[in-house]
Amino acid sequence: MYSISRGVIGKAVAIIAAVILLLAFLQVRSCSQARQKAAQSKLDKGQAGAAQESAKDAIATQGEVTTFQSKSEDLARANEKEIRDAKGADAAVDPAVRDAGLASLCRRASYRDTEQCRVRRTPPR
Fold it and tell me: What's the longest Cα–Cα distance across the chain?
């Protein structure tokens, strides 16, 4: 019969052990990479969800701003109509009274940068 020397058996056992260790290392590495990919995927989904929520908030905010501006413009038109329709609205007003009224409005932040107020403003020295 064949006689196998101890050296050959030792080398075979060493090779088999090395292959088993290599396979175990690759399996652990594969599991680690799978966990990393799962974590990255979860993070990506979370970021995408946060971006969607931010977009929804931005759209809602813009809608609210537009609604506010529209209501403000409607109020301005209604006020203008009420003033023009008021008794005595067609009466002449002294220019000094008109200028004082405009000057008082132009001191307010909401009117300060309107075209009429910018024209009335004295240039900086």
Answer: 134
Identify which of 90, 120, 95 has the alpha carbon closest to the alpha carbon of residue 105. 120
Residue 106 CB neighbour total at 10 angstroms: 17
Residue of 70, 76, 66 lying closest to 114 (CA atoms) = 76
| Structure tokens given for 39 | 């974590």
In tens, the pLDDT along 21-61 reads: 999 999 989 888 888 998 898 888 888 889 999 999 999 99
User: What are the CA-CA distances from residue 54 to residues 29, 36, 97 (Å)?
Assistant: 37, 27, 50
Q: Return phi, psi of residue 122, to 5°.
A: -80, 140
pTM, to two decimals: 0.42
d(CA 101, CA 86) in angstroms, rounded, equals 18
Q: What is the CA angle 56-58-59, rounded to 5? A: 65
Which tens digit of pLDDT belongs to each residue from 58-83?
Answer: 999 999 999 999 999 999 999 999 99
